[in-house]
Design brief:
By secondary structure, the chain is of the alpha/beta class. It has a single domain (about 5-130), classed as Carbonic anhydrase (Beta-carbonic Anhydrase, Chain A, 3-Layer(aba) Sandwich). About 40% of the residues lie in helices and about 25% in strands. The chain contains four helices and five strands; from the N terminus they run βαβααβαββ. The protein has helices spanning about 20-30, 45-50, 50-70, 90-105, and strands spanning about 5-10, 35-40, 75-80, 110-115, 125-130. Strands 2-1-3-4-5 form a five-stranded mixed sheet, sandwiched between helices. Helix 2 (about 45-50) crosses helix 4. The structure holds zinc ion.
Length: about 140
């Protein structure tokens, strides 16, 4: 059993350059031991403008992490030089904010954070939200 471990969850790009920075940011800032990774090419775009079936599929994957590991925080990350979402920094960060608001509307008992990974391949916070109807704490 893994109940003694604390978990977070990230909806992150498939890009191998962003897995570690996003996991490390969540571990450091939300005091978790492990980060479950739900990957999708261009996940900020997928949540902000993708079709409902794709968003529902991502939500179902996040729910598995919360059910199994009692994840306390869910992150959505966008990143520089994204093959699936070649947008400007400003566009990415707007999508990250929109994606975070969508996740918050799912009513999960988690904190929701939006992250940006820039050209230095370090993660930084764009937005942090309490889930609507959830019990998330920072
Ligand atoms: Zn990407």
């Amino acid at each position: 059993m893994t109940t003694e471990h604390r978990f977070g969850t990230a909806i992150n790009c498939i890009d191998g350059r962003v897995q570690q920075p996003v996991a490390e940011w969540i571990k450091k800032n939300h005091q978790v031991d492990f980060v479950d990774m739900v990957t999708e090419p261009g996940p900020d775009k997928a949540l902000a403008t993708g079709d409902a079936r794709l968003r529902d599929a991502l939500r179902a994957k996040v729910q598995v992490s919360i059910n199994a590991h009692h994840s306390r925080v869910v992150a959505i990350a966008g990143h520089h030089n994204c093959a699936a979402n070649p947008a400007s920094r400003e566009e990415h960060q707007a999508q990250v904010r929109q994606g975070a608001r969508l996740i918050a509307s799912w009513g999960l008992p988690v904190r929701v954070v939006g992250l940006w990974v820039g050209p230095d391949w370090k993660a930084e916070a764009v937005v942090s939200l309490a889930s609507e109807g959830g019990a998330g704490t920072p």
